[in-house]
């Protein structure tokens, strides 16, 4: 009996240790596989982790008779391709919006006031939320980097970032919120 089949049988028996074994044995090779598609290790890590979580939380292994390893490679491939398509769509939307925006030559005095308002609003965020927001948006760190540095889960990073963006959208005029998003264009903010 192959190793993947042994792990699948143990998973079906409800052995949590089997999932940990499966994760440790296949994680690195799946990240390498996803990195080959995405050309970004951090994005590949996120995709693979999401796939493992999906398999575990939804007990997707229950319907398999064999080929757990093949199933995971197929799942990671599809998730990586979806991530790639999604990032290309986000870039295309951003480029279209940038082309439609008027060119700004010099910052005027009243524009300086808008930037002050922007930073004042950002400073109204709760300290931890503001810290996560600045690490992702201003410093350009990946979600996983922030999670590791702050010793929190990646889902907490996502949740806090989404709450920050919701707060800023509500507090700022629509135009100023758009300016905020364009200021940090190179950062992948996942909606």
TrEMBL record:
Coiled coil: none annotated. It comes from the Bacteria. Residues 23-89 form the RNA polymerase sigma-70 region domain. Residues 116-168 form the RNA polymerase sigma factor 70 region 4 type domain. Keywords: Sigma factor, Transcription, Transcription regulation. It holds the Pfam family Sigma70_r4_2. InterPro entries: RNA_pol_sigma-70-like (IPR039425), RNA_pol_sigma-70_dom (IPR014284), RNA_pol_sigma70_bacteroid (IPR014327), RNA_pol_sigma70_r2 (IPR007627), RNA_pol_sigma70_r4_t2 (IPR013249), RNA_pol_sigma_r2 (IPR013325), RNA_pol_sigma_r3/r4-like (IPR013324), WH-like_DNA-bd_sf (IPR036388). NCBIfam families: Sig70_bacteroi1 (TIGR02985), sigma70-ECF (TIGR02937). Belongs to the sigma-70 factor family. ECF subfamily. This is RNA polymerase sigma-70 factor. It comes from Butyricimonas hominis.
């Amino acid at each position: 009996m192959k190793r993947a089949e042994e792990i699948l049988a143990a998973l079906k028996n409800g052995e949590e240790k089997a999932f940990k074994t499966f994760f440790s044995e296949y994680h690195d090779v799946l990240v390498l596989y996803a990195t080959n598609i995405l050309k970004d290790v951090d994005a590949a890590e996120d995709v693979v982790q999401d796939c493992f979580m999906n398999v575990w939380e939804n007990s997707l292994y229950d319907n398999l008779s064999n080929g757990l390893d093949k199933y995971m490679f197929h799942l990671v491939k599809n998730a990586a391709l979806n991530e790639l398509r999604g990032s290309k769509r986000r870039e295309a939307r951003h480029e279209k919006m940038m082309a439609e925006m008027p060119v700004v030559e010099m910052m005027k005095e009243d524009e300086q006031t808008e930037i002050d308002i922007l930073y004042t609003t950002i400073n109204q965020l709760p300290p931890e939320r503001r810290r996560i927001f600045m690490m992702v948006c201003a410093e350009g760190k990946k979600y996983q980097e922030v999670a590791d540095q702050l010793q929190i889960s990646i889902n907490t990073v996502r949740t806090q970032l989404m709450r920050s963006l919701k707060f800023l959208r509500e507090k700022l005029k629509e135009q100023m919120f758009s300016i905020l998003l364009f200021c940090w264009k190179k950062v992948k903010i996942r909606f």
